[in-house]
Amino acid sequence: MIRIAIQTKGRLNEESIKMLSSIDIDIDNNKRKFLSKAANYPAEVLYLRDDDIPHVVESGTAQLGIVGLNEVAEKGCNVEIVCKLGFGGCRISLAIPKGDEYTGVEYFNGKRIATSYPAILQKFLNENNIDARIEVITGSVEIAPAAEIADAIFDIVSSGGTLVSNGLKEVERVFESEAVLIANKDLAAQEKEILDEILFRIESEKISQRKKYILMNIPSENLQKALQILPAMRSPTVLPLAAEGWCSLHSVVGADELWDKVKQLKAIGAEGILVLSLDKIIL
Ligand code: ATP
Ligand code: MG
User: Fold this and answer.
1) I need a surface site. Which of 79, 85, 185, 216 has the fewest CB within 10 A?
2) Rounded distance, CA 133 to CA 3, Å?
3) How far is the CA of 274 from the centre of ligand 1 (A)?
């Protein structure tokens, strides 16, 4: 049995449940429960505030966790960052009043900066030899300059809309974040085995998202040309059709090259092209 800590509510909750479900670990997302067992896997989910997840994984109360890389970096916990999960993308940036001229990081010397991420900010200031005062605020950091609590802010940005509506402009992108899978560093052998299985499933899922299954009818005389356009994982499947001089060709292509391949295949007479999403690719 393995315990996975995820956010109870907030931006990462739904995506975390969705990610587990995409690798066939089905969790009942009943927020009144503190712990929830997977119906079909030796795993249970522990619901927590995201701030608590790195520490709970470090201490081993949960063996795994899904949390923003920003929280892991801020808390400085000694956990293994197993893999990035491709959701919850954001950055932590320095922003200043939009009327101020900005010529470089020296701007922040002697300034007061409001943030909920003092550790990440202090590291950046040290690396750049900047002497600024950090004002720790846990919510609504963006109002600090207007409220004259600080001269600048260091906060999470995704679209930048919140900054603009508070009369601020982003001047330094300091930390790029996304949701990550973290693990305790002293997993027992059996827990390690479950983690390996989870990773294998995540990898299969990631590969399948970037691929499409394509099938079409093609004049037999152009089969060789089609095979050159469509190199498959091992080799494409070719099946004879009842109609004389035609065959059916099945293959897997990268989603980003799909339309280019379709164009080339149509040019050599491919018909009835079907493109299907792939659920899993097991290599
Ligand atoms: P909790 O109640 O669990 O402490 P929270 O209010 O601290 O929640 P959320 O706002 O739900 O946290 O954000 C969780 C994580 O989502 C952030 O730590 C960050 O990694 C990620 N994230 C992605 N985009 C954004 C965004 N625009 N604003 C804030 N967080 C974002
Ligand atoms: Mg939080």
Assistant:
1) 185
2) 40
3) 40
Pick from 160, 120, 153: nearest CA to 137 = 153
**What residues does ligand 1 touch, defined as CB less than 6 Å away?**
7, 10-12, 49-51, 68, 70-71, 88, 90, 156, 158, 177
Count other Cβ atoms within 10 Å, centred on residue 249: 23
Query: In angstroms, what is the span from residue 271 Cα to ligand 1's centroid?
Result: 48
The closest residue, in CA terms, to atom 30 on ligand 1 is: 156
Quick: pLDDT tens for 1-46.
Answer: 999 999 999 999 999 999 999 999 998 877 667 999 998 999 999 9
DSSP 8-state symbol, 166: T
Do the Cβ atoms of 93 and 170 come closer than 8 Å?
Answer: yes
At a CB cut-off of 8 Å and minimum separation 6, what does 103 contact? none
Write the pLDDT tens digit of every residue in 232-266: 777 789 999 998 999 999 999 999 999 999 999 99
Spatial separation of the C-alpha atoms in residues 250 and 260, rounded to whole Å: 17
Residue having the nearest C-alpha atom to atom 22 of ligand 1: 88
